[in-house]
Amino acid sequence: MSALIFRLLALGIVVTQFCIAQESLAGGAKSEIIPIDAKPEPISIDPIRTAVIVVDMENDFAAKGGMFDRAGVDISGAQKAIAPTAKVLAAAREAGLKIIYLKMGYHPDLSDLGANDSVNRARHLKFGVGQKIQAPDGRESRILVRDTWDTDIVPELKPQANDAVIYKTRFSGFYQTELDATLKKFGVKYLIVTGVTTSICVESTVRDAMFRDYLCVLLQDCMSEPIGHDLARTNHDASLLNAELLFGWVSSSDQFTKALTTNSSQAMR
After folding, report:
1. Which residues are catalytic?
2. Which residues on adjacent β-strands are paired with residue 194?
3. pTM for the whole thing?
């Protein structure tokens, strides 16, 4: 009988340690269900199983002097998304959520750009990928090359020590990257998605996430799309409608931060 009691006590210790470890992995987030107002209906998330994904909010796509800006692509939408995204990241860190940055960037020799006849290589070369430039801060840099000013996250959204940063070489953050393994490592099920551009890298990543049974919530004011931005119905709107109908949920920075704040206030009572 004493041996059985000892085993049960030992099992209890193991379970307790596992729970503590899970909370630690989530950065201290409490395992409480939080409802978020969204379309097509509200969704409830578990903070301990939730990560905020920041897609390609790097200088080449969102800063003056970056690849898009040099190519004459309108970056005003991406810049407008910076402030609400910063608000979301601050609230997420306060709540202990995991934050993962995805960055489009290639090796200096462009060996991961694709085969000579690949669409990925051809279309990116048209934007000058690999070309040397002088960054706005005076440093020598290279367009969409890893570990340069061009692929740095914009200063307002700079990653912090506990955040994960993952380079990608295709539109989807899941293609030949450690994103899926990282999410599984932290026990993540819910993805709060931000970034650029809505109908390309964001939607590609969301589609692949949905195929892997992650539950995605897109924050509409934390992303933008330059393609078709001057049309009556933009590509940004179309992608959000796709997400709302088939791939996940659509919400906003205000709704998300309100949900986290309300939960925090209730927890303190």
Report:
1. 56, 168, 201
2. 54
3. 0.87
